[in-house]
Amino acid sequence: MAARLSRRLLIGAALALPVARPSWASADPVAALKAAFDAEVGGPSAPADRAARALAAGREMLLSRLDRPQAFLLVDRAEDPLGQWVHVAVGGPGAFRWEILGSGRTSTGRRGRFDHYLTPLGVVEHDGGILGWRAQGTPNSNGIRGLGVRGMRIWDFGWRQAQTGWLARPEMREIRLLVHATDPVHLEPRLGTPASKGCIRVSGRMNRFLDRHAILDAAYLAAAPSDRRIAALLPPDGTPSPLAGRFVAVVETA
Question: What is the CATH number of the domain that holds 91?
């Protein structure tokens, strides 16, 4: 018990940042989530035309799957000089207005390097069936913390079919698809270019935002009262948004 408590305290210390928590009960949740993104993530904005095309593609993929207004992660794996982008967006059924609340640099699967795969296009759902984890922050033999600093969240979407990026005649093989942070010193500055083995890399600030506001954790929130493993994984400083969702849509605008 003491070990588990110590672990929770360490995770809390790693994640706790001085942020102004949104007052969800008294605010328009879309406006409140956008304000939280601006305050906690900020950073560069994606080119407007690229963002609009990504949102249109994401809407086509997700429209039939969203039974209520909710946030989702929208990943544009396009490879061009404007870079690769990940967006926090909101959508919903009927006349609900779909929009992008904020953007950040991302890296998806790299071509031309052995054992690297193209991040698969389409929709994946974080349905609560797989327990994610948190990074230990331990450097590898090259001094790289591949999943980010201690306490960074890893969302696990299970085994997915992905195209090999290094074979002259590409094949479809299985990869373990994750969304995670990366080394803040050596790799985070490279976000925006394809670099991963197929996973979706985000900045530490984006990782904390997704974690704190349960952008992908609607199923986890529902399961937490009866599942201690899930409850222990959710952040102690969390302020889940009423728009908490469960989907990642990977598109290619180029």
Answer: 2.40.440.10
